[in-house]
Amino acid sequence: MDMMRRSTLARIASAVLVIGGIMQPTSAREMDKMWGEQVMKLKATDAERGQLFEEGNYAMFIHWGLYSHIGNLYKGKSYYGIGEWIMNRNMAGIPVDEYKALAKEFNPTDFDADAIAKLAKDAGMKYIVITSKHHDGFAMYHSKVNEFNIVDATPFDRDPMKELAHACKKHGLGLGFYYSHNQDWTFPGGGNGPKQTADGTKVDFKYYYENKCRPQVEEITTQYGPIAIVWFDTPGRIPREYVEELVDIVHKNQPNALVSGRAGYGLGDYQTLGDMEVPNANVEGIWETVDTTNDSWAYAWYDNYWKTPEDVLHRLVACVGRGGTYMLNIGPKGDGTVPELAVRTLRKAGQWIKRYPQVVYGTDASPWQHALPWGDVTMRDTTLSLCVFNTPLEGALYLPGLKTEIKSARLLGQRRRQAKLKVQRRDGWTKIQLPARISEKLVPVVQVELESRPDVDPGWGIDPSLETTILAQFATVTGAKQETRRWMEKFGEWKHVVRVWQWEQGGKASWEVNVLQPGYYNVDLTYNGKGRIVWGVDVEGGQHIQNQQNSSHNYQRFPIGWINFPGPGKYTVSVSCLEGDLAEASLKAIHFTFVD
Predict the structure, then answer these.
(1) Residue pair 195/189 in contact by the 8 Å Cβ criterion
(2) SS3 201
(3) What does the alpha-carbon distance between residue 474 and residue 593 come to, in Å, rounded to a whole number?
(4) Mean pLDDT, rounded, of the chain
(5) How many CA atoms lie within 13 A of 171 on its CB side?
(6) What domains sit in the chain, N to C, each tagged with a CATH number?
(7) Judging by beta carbons within 10 Å of its beta carbon (0-12, 13-18, 19+), is residue 241 exposed, middle or buried?
(8) How far is Cα 74 from Cα 19, in angstroms, rounded to an integer?
(9) Which residues, other chains included, contact 398 with Cβ-Cβ below 8 Å and sequence gap of 6+?
(10) Across 194-223, average pLDDT
(11) Residues 542, 561: Cα–Cα separation, whole Å
(12) Has residue 6 got a pLDDT over 80?
C-alpha cells in the first residue's frame, strides 16, 4: 500500500469507553456503528498531517508528572501498578487536597530536555509525545488558566515543555502533547473528579470543560510552536460536541497536527490500539501501538522489568510489519532523569536502526500479513527486509507462498563475499541459505530484491526447521466462540489474546496449512481452563490424535502428540475440545515442530 493511500485511510480511529476508570476498546459492532454515524471528508492537509507519522514509524512517549515524584511509594507503602494512577482509589486513593500539597515537594532540577531529545534521536525515534496533563489534573507546563501546574505550584519554576519544544526543534524531532480531556481528578466537574467547588457549589462536566479543558487545549496548541500530535485519552462519556470542538481547536491552531483516536466518537485522525497491544495481523489505515520500556508508564521505584534491545526491536518491527507505528514510553524519575537501564536499551536498539534504517522508515506492511517462525518482514516497493529474530539451526530461512521471482538476496552488514545468499525454489516455497557465521549479533537482516511488487499467498506455512506457532486468532471457528480478551496482570498492565472458547460438542477451530517437508510433527496446544481437558487434533482426510491434559487459570502449553503429513501441499488442521469443562476451555495457539 503506497503512502498516499495510507494517508487517505486516516479516518480510522479507535472508539473507547471507560470501565472502572480504565480505557477499554468497544466491541467491533459498536465501532462500526460509530463509524456509520460519520463520513469523513478528505482534506488537502491529510497527506501533510500524516507524513511524519507514516514515514517515522517510531516515536517516544513520555509519562512524567507529579506522580513521578511519588514513584509508587506513598507513606512507606509500595503500590504495584501503573504509576500515573497512584492517586486513584484503585491504587493509593490519595485525597485531592493531600495530593495537590505534594506539588510543593516536586522539584525536578535534573530535568534535561536536550538530553531527552538526544536520547530519542539516538534511539531512532522521529517525534516525542509527552504528558502535558494527565488524569491527576497537574499541568506539566505553565498554564495561565489553572495554577495547579509545574511553574506555579512547585519550587521548580520552569516550563519544561518550552525547553522540550526547543530541544526537539534543535534535534529535528516532532513534538506532541498528551492531554487528558475527560478525566481530571482534582478539578471540579472533571471526569472522576470533585463534584463541587471549594465554596461548596455543585458543578458538572461543563464547568470543567469551559474553565480548564478547552482553554488548556488552546494553550498547548498555541504556545509551543508547531506540534505534530495532540494525544487525547480515555474519553469516557464526554459529550460528542465537546470532542468535536477540541478536534476543531487542534486543527485550527495546528493545521498539520494529528489528533489521536482516543479523542472519542471516531473523530481522531488515526487509530490507537489498546495499551501494550502489538497486533498479530496487518491493520489497515494509519494506526499506532503505545507500549512502555518496562511495565509502568510513569516511574515506579520497584519496576525493573525492562525490555531488552531485542524485545524493543521485535515489537517495533512487528508494528511496522503490520503497517503501523510504534510509540515506546519512558517514565522519567521525580528528579527528571531517565532510568539508566531504559537509556541503555533505547540506545542499543537505536544503533541497530541506524545500521538498517530501510527496515523501519517509510515502509509498507509485510505481504505475508503476519509474522513468520524465524522473524518478520517489512517492505519498500520491490524490496523485502527479512528481520531474523529466531535463527534456524540449519541456517535457512523458508518463505511460504512467495510467487514473485527473486533478483537477489543478501545479508546486510556482511562481508561482500559472504553477503550474497543462495536462493532455491520448491513446491511454492523459497529457501534462502544463511552463511555459517553472521556478523550482526542483534537482529540479522536479509534484503531481498524482487522482480516486481510481491505476490504472496499469506496463508500459514509449517516451517521444516523451526517450530511454527499459529494463533487461534487466525482460525475458522464453528461450534465455539472466537473473541478478544483483555486483562490486567498488575493494575494497568494490559495483556491481550484472541481465544476460542465456550466449545460445543463437535466444535472446531481450523486452519489451512502449507507443508513443505512431509513427515511427523509434534503438536502442542496453548490454552487455559478448569480441570482436565481432552483435546483432539485432526488432519482433514487424514490422522486424528487426542490427549488429556490438565489446565490452569493462565495460558500454558501442553503436548498432544505426533501427527503425520504424508506429502507436501496444503492441509486443513482442526482442534476440538472433546471432554471436560468445554465452556471454560480457552485455546490460544497450536504449535507444530518437525520430528521425522
Answers:
(1) yes
(2) coil
(3) 19
(4) 92
(5) 24
(6) 3-357 (3.20.20.80), 385-455 (2.60.40), 468-594 (2.60.120.260)
(7) exposed
(8) 26
(9) 373, 374, 392, 429, 430, 431, 461, 463, 464, 465, 516
(10) 98
(11) 15
(12) no
Q: d(Cα 537, Cα 527) in Å, to the nearest integer?
A: 14
- Cell readout for 477 is 471457528
Any long-range contacts for 549-558 (C-beta under 8 Å, 24+ apart)?
A: 551/527, 551/580, 551/585, 552/528, 553/528, 554/528, 555/497, 555/526, 555/527, 555/528, 555/586, 555/588, 556/526, 556/527, 556/528, 557/524, 557/525, 557/526, 557/591, 558/524, 558/525, 558/526, 558/527
Short-list 507, 525, 511, 508, CA closest to 571: 511
Coil, strand or helix at 461: strand
Contacts of 201 (CB under 8 A, 6+ apart): none
Whether 498 contacts 484, CB under 8 Å: yes
pLDDT, one tens digit per residue, over 7-56 is: 333 322 332 222 223 333 333 334 334 333 332 333 334 546 666 666 78
464, 594 Cβ separation under 8 angstroms: yes
Please give the grid coordinates belonging to residue 587.
485455546
Asked if residues 393 and 34 have their Cβ atoms less than 8 Å apart, the reply is no
Which three-class secondary structure state does DSSP give residue 64?
coil
CA distance 475 to 478: 10
C-alpha to C-alpha distance for 174 and 49, rounded to whole angstroms: 12
Q: Select from 278, 293, 311, 313 the least CA-distant residue to 445.
A: 313
Amino acid, res. 200: G
DSSP 8-state secondary structure symbol assigned to residue 211: I
C-alpha grid cell, residue 302 = 520497584
pTM for the structure as a whole: 0.92
Instruction: Compute the distance between CA of residue 574 and CA of residue 537 in angstroms, rounded to an integer.
Output: 6
Q: Which three cell numbers stand for residue 290?
A: 503505545
Question: Could you read off the pLDDT of 64-101 as tens digits, one per residue?
Answer: 999 999 999 999 999 999 999 999 999 999 999 999 99
